Amino acid sequence: MRRALSLLYQGIARAVDEQYRTFRLRELGRPGGRGDRIGLVDRAIRVPRVILLQGYDRIPRRYVRFSRFNIYARDANRCQLLCGRQYPRAELNLDHVVPRSRGGTSVWENVVCSCHRCNRLKGGRTPAEAGHAARPAAAAAASGRRFMTETYSLRRYKEWMPFLSAVDAAYWNTELVAE
Asked: Is the model's pLDDT at 93 over the cut of 70?
């Protein structure tokens, strides 16, 4: 929202409503319309959920950073080793499905959330050697599919629906074939 307001203020973008009408920043303060509002010193303006760029100089990257936060988000703060329970982040750590001591690397496919207890039980072994099969998310963890599905989910704001189609969702959620 902060970025959208900045672009509107600079005149680089315009807000779009459900009827595909466009508005400048000063026009968002007009009476009428539904939705959330931001209070300013002298008035309230509607929150712009969809903006239209007047032009752009580069296509934005679609790169998801390999980070602890994103791994926890992908796995929904759920232990992927044995118990499958959801925990607060403070009670989770990251586990290499194939241990680093066995050549496992720190990539999306090999790193999953685990609770402290399950991680200790697994130790430096693979899930099969530890006597339990990895949960489905651990087996296919690297695709990041669950995380990407949430990131590009159609469940965000109803104002987005006219601009997102099933074709868009299929594009982002289709598994890519390695060549």
From this structure: yes
Backbone angles phi and psi of 120, in degrees to 5: -65, -40
Phi-psi category of residue 131: left, alpha or beta, with phi > 0 → left and psi -120 to 50 → alpha: left
Region 60-84 average pLDDT:
83
- Tell me how many helices (H) and strands (E) the chain has: 6, 7
CA proximity to 108, closest of 97, 120, 119: 97
At 86, list the tokens.
């959801």
Please state, in angstroms and rounded to a whole number, the distance separating the CA atoms of residues 138 and 79.
9
Every domain of the chain and the residues it spans: 2-53, 68-146
Confidence class for position 141, pLDDT limits 50, 70, 90? very low
- Show the tokens assigned to 129: 């050697």
Eight-class DSSP state of 158: G
* Topology, domain 68-146: DNA Binding (I), subunit A (1.10.30)
CB 150 within 8 A of CB 73: yes
**Residue 77 to residue 164: CA distance in whole angstroms:** 28
